[in-house]
Specification:
With 180 residues, this protein is α/β, with parallel strands linked by helices.
Length: 180
């Protein structure tokens, strides 16, 4: 692909197969929260990759402009582990401003939609020079993660690393590996 990639590293905790796909759909659309523990398997292994350059904070990629019927993010259990075990702070200044869903877009349209889908609500946060960890549920095209990484880079972030529960597409990175 001929596009700029704004994150330095991208990792998935699981790769998509028939079992993972079915479990993920139950987690995401039937609120089967306990299944998220399965998708968190191996998260401590990822932390080993960050020993030399650990993240300063993490961001849960917002999926809706306002909280809706789902009161939790699919990756909430990973969020809790990051807060409790790695003592990372959460940056909550990013919001989804578009009401459209990425999943309803065609492959090419996802990249155009992502450009206008996210914005910062607080401009007073000092994040210049930080290493930010983006946490999302699934990597399909990478359009949302890439756009959010671009926005953080514009605000002066030094490094962006992405972690997703499930890899559905191909992770592009700047010479870095993916985990699965």
């Amino acid at each position: 692909m001929d596009r700029f990639v704004f994150y330095e590293e991208a990792y998935s905790l699981q790769k998509r197969d028939l079992i993972a796909k079915d479990l993920f759909l139950s987690l995401k659309f039937q609120n089967e929260k306990q299944i998220s523990n399965y998708f968190c398997l191996g998260w401590r292994e990822l932390a080993k990759f960050w020993k030399l350059d650990p993240p300063d904070c993490f961001v849960m990629v917002p999926s809706k402009p306002k909280p809706g019927p789902k009161p939790y993010h699919v990756a909430w259990s990973l969020r809790n582990r990051l807060l409790r075990c790695l003592n990372l702070r959460e940056d909550t200044s990013l919001r989804k401003v578009s009401k459209d869903k990425q999943s309803e877009k065609r492959f090419e349209d996802r990249f155009f939609h992502a450009k206008k889908a996210f914005a910062f609500t607080k401009s007073d946060r000092i994040i210049e020079g930080l290493h930010v960890l983006l946490v999302d549920d699934i990597f399909t095209t990478g359009a949302s993660l890439n756009e959010i990484a671009r926005l953080y880079k514009l605000r002066g972030v030094r490094k962006v690393t992405c972690v997703v529960f499930l890899l559905s597409g191909v992770i592009e990175s700047n010479g870095c590996s993916s985990q699965g």
